[in-house]
Every structure is written in structure tokens, then in C-alpha cells.
Amino acid sequence: xxxxxxxxxxxxxQGWLSPALHRLEDCGWSSSYWNASENNRTAKFxxxxxxxxxxxxxxxxRWRQMIPAIGLVMGEEGGTR
Length: 81
Hints:
Structural class: alpha+beta
Largest sheet: 2 strands, antiparallel
Oligomer: single chain
């Protein structure tokens, strides 16, 4: 889904994604369950918890504040919004 919605930017490597999902679960920001995938194989699915949705809102806000600053550092006049 990440690759599909981002047009393959960034490229998500399997070795990176799984540990990140486990860390989210360890923090209580997600939960997981086993179910059949689209190709009818057993797969582990993750879902954001209420705490995870709150953390996502905080991180999104911080990221949106950083975008103009990054633009200025990269030489874009006025940053990007």
C-alpha cells in the first residue's frame, strides 16, 4: 500500500519495514492480526491504535512545520508549503 500510494517514493525495503512495524506495536501505537492476504496466503496485518492515531497527528504537525524550513535550507525562496 505504501508503494502504491506514494508512486514508489520512497522505496520500502522489507528489511526496514518489519522492524518498524514491530516498534510501533511495542509502543502501543498499532496492533496486529493474522488474516488471508489478497493472494489467499496467511499474512500479518497492522492497524493503528487510538494512541497511534494521536501520535500520527503530532508527527504530521511537526513534519508540516519542518517542510518550509527544509525548503529554506535547500535554497527554495520562502520554503515550500
